[in-house]
Design a protein that fits this description.
- The structure holds two protein chains of two kinds.
- Chain A is 74% helix and 0% strand.
- By secondary structure, chain A is mainly α.
- Chain A starts with a helix and ends in a 7-residue tail after the last helix.
- In chain B, the strands form four sheets. Chain B has a six-stranded mixed beta sheet with strand order 6-7-8-3-9-10, with helices on both faces. Chain B has a four-stranded antiparallel beta sheet with strand order 2-1-4-5, covered by helices on one side.
- In chain B, helix 5 crosses helix 6.
- Chain B starts with a strand and ends with a helix.
- At the A-B interface, helix 6, helix 7 and helix 10 of A face helix 2, helix 4 and helix 5 of B.
Amino acid sequence: MLADLAAYLGDGTNWAGSTGILNRLVEHVGYSALALLVGAVIAVPLGLAIGHTGRGEGIIVGLANTMRALPSLGLMTFLVLLMSSTLIPPITALVALAVPPLLAGVYAGIANVDRSVVDAARAMGMTEWQILLRVELPNALPLIVGGLRGATLQVVATATIAAFVNLGGLGRYIFDGLALYDYTRVLLGALLVTALALVLDGLLALVVKLVQPGTGRMTVRDTGLQAAIDDRAPAAPTA
Amino acid sequence: MITFDHVTKRFPDGTVGVDDLSLEIEQGSFTVFVGPSGCGKTTSMRMINRMIDPTEGTITVGGRDISTVRPTELRLGIGYVIQNAGLMPHRTVVDNVATVLVLQGVTKRKARITALEAMERVGLDLRMATRYPAQLSGGQQQRVGVARALAADPPVLLMDEPFSAVDPVVRDDLQREMLRLQSELSKTIVFVTHDIDEAIRLGDRVAVFGTGGVLQQLDTAEAVLTRPANPFVTNLVGRDRGFRSLSFQSATQVPVHDVETLPLAGLGSAPALAPHAWALVVDGDRRPVGWLNATRQALVGERGEAALAPLGSLSTPSRTLRQSLDAVLSSPSERGVVVDDDGALLGVVEANDVLAALSAQRGSTTDDAGVLGATATQDALS
């Protein structure tokens, strides 16, 4: 079976075209991105609001638990029976997966910003919006991106279900393979999904490091400032 | 400059944070709110920049009733320093200091240059400007906090227990820095602390708050120590207040005596000391290094400089009787070492002279003498 798999991957014709590996990969990433985007539109404002005001923490627990308990495949099948669209049911099922980790990440990120920092910012004359955008959000980024990372992993792994309702994506290989008793194809689909998920996970892990506050990784050098410092403190030791 | 007119703060749960507070804080004064926790001192301070709104009464800052001013606008004109500094961890030191300027609409480039000036003013090394708060020590962070509050040059400065979380040595340093800054800048400062020593050292006016948010006494630091208004204040300033009040007596009249000195270089070849005599060892610049007696001199050959007895605390002529007396008490030879501002030896003071200077000064202010005398008797009895 592994030899068959290697042969399949080695054949260039299997990569090209509308049913080729590359196109399936693009479709898969497309469904995942759409679901994550819709999930973020729901989870980010809600998480920011609850984290900033400290009100409605019960909503987080309730919503997250309910959505986590929903079986993706069941939800999707149910929605397919209700409507004629083929795109909305799988995306809805994926959004339900994306929201809990995103919401938890945004909420925890904002709520965990040192309260004395927020208090000082307010006392200096920042408006609530300025506090949220200039103080809380930058310091919450590692946890927010961490939430995105969790959501991405789950959504990418589950986006195979789109193929169940005759859409594309890497799930095609799995469902087609099962129907045809072609287990090489099932294995191919599983491997590609795993590889995609791992690559995205690794990339987001790097982003988490990059957005860590107070490391200066994202800072633009201000040459005017440096010149002013050198000008004023020329004799200061460089240590 | 800042007035509280019958201000009361009642919290939603019914507790009274501040009870009918009326007080005036003069422009350019350093006023310290002091009291035990839960006495309403922080609540009172936070009402000045509308971090808390009073339930009753009015507060005016610079003649304006602040309930008519938008909180954000009011706060931009009032510097604020808190415990642990509260610096933004994602911004560099210079950007933290520049925060208020940027909020006021100054361009980032200009704000940073002004921020550097503020850092210089509080004695921060400008090389720290591009570091992040987490890379600084607690004392340095606190200095950045003060620089941040001063950068936009506000007329009023609120400080909420700013130095409580740093170690005593750094705190002493920061307190001295605060006094220097205030003598240069003459801001109207409201400073909250639970430490009566800090209150007396820093404040030219001290407001003592009691439980339930009732103001017990508002007076000069010296008056709070020497003439406490009621038993609560007496209790708060504590039993050492007689000793503490020495801080208000100048040491200029204490005579400085000569002392036998030995040079640090060639210590081993110095002539032998008499059995009960102490000699002060000084270095090439006549800075005192340590005390030596006959017993310790015998060990010099073996241990060198480590054989010296420690100096104890040093005093200068311009300081207070408290420092003179402390110098005497902490010295192994029972004589306190006096140095000039460069640290070079001037001589020694003796306990009898310190006490004589004290009674001379008390004699000139008979009113205080009576109170202090009564206090001492009371303490001796209790």
